[in-house]
């Protein structure tokens, strides 16, 4: 094993040991001492102390000033909530999507952010005949779709920027400037509207399912031949997204977004 491989193996082992110590603390009912953590993790107290101090510095653990015992920190809580939101909420929303498509008589799809941008993870076809070629695994354009605008309005800007650069030949700043007014309208209205993205005459509305930190977890979109901004389908979609979001504010149902946001 050469030097680089040895350093990599050592780094992986250190990460594994840190996670092991974090799991020991997580399994306890409350604050726990260095001695007990080291014993349960199978490390020497001096080595365990170094890991514990690093985890405290990152915010994953806290050390109480009075007893010196260790407990879970806010960063651990943040990661746990994020995992719960992304897995549980997306799964539950996906399971409920057929009822929404039946209620609105529109094709419905649930989209999450992936390396290629907004990507469909659940698609439900309505009873109306359609030639739209959508389904699980299909990526949606960021700048020219209602679904993309939802992620632009409520998503992580750093992750979005990378995908936008790949999807457009324009300068990134220029591309974002062109859609900035539309993004603001989406934020105020709580949903986005686009026309003719997949097929001529097909209209799409999309709204976010939000996390506890006011970031989009997933987008719910409805597509059919006739959808107006103030129609019952919009209200049904917003009610659906509210039901599965952690936050319960930010949806202005009475504010009508312009019909051609993404056109």
Characterization of the model:
With 263 residues, this protein is an alpha+beta fold. Helix content is 48%, strand content 16%. The chain has helices spanning 3-26, 34-41, 45-57, 74-104, 146-154, 157-167, 172-189, 232-244; strands at 61-63, 70-72, 107-114, 117-124, 192-195, 203-210, 216-224. The strands form two sheets. Strands 4-3-7-6-5 form a five-stranded antiparallel beta sheet, with helices on both faces. Helix 2 packs across helix 3 (45-57) and helix 4 (74-104) runs antiparallel to helix 8. It is elongated, with a radius of gyration of 23 Å. The model is unreliable at 248-263 (pLDDT under 50).
Features:
Arc Repressor Mutant, subunit A, two-stranded antiparallel ribbon, 8 helices, 48% helix, 16% strand, elongated
What series of H and E elements makes up the topology? HHHEEHEEHHHEEEH
In CATH, the topology of the largest domain is named Beta-Lactamase
User: What's the helix count?
Assistant: 8
CATH level 1 name of the largest domain:
Alpha Beta
Strand order of the largest sheet: 4-3-7-6-5
Average pLDDT, rounded to a whole number, is 79
The CATH architecture classification of the largest domain is 2-Layer Sandwich
Helix/strand-derived category reads alpha+beta
Return Rg in Å.
23 Å
Give a topology summary.
Blueprint lengths: L2 H24 L7 H8 L3 H13 L3 E3 L6 E3 L1 H31 L2 E8 L2 E8 L21 H9 L2 H11 L4 H18 L2 E4 L7 E8 L5 E9 L7 H13 L19
Antiparallel strand pairs: 1-2, 3-4, 3-7, 5-6, 6-7
Quick structural summary:
Helices cover 48% and strands 16% of the residues. The strands form 2 sheets. Strands 4-3-7-6-5 form a 5-stranded antiparallel beta sheet, with helices on both faces.
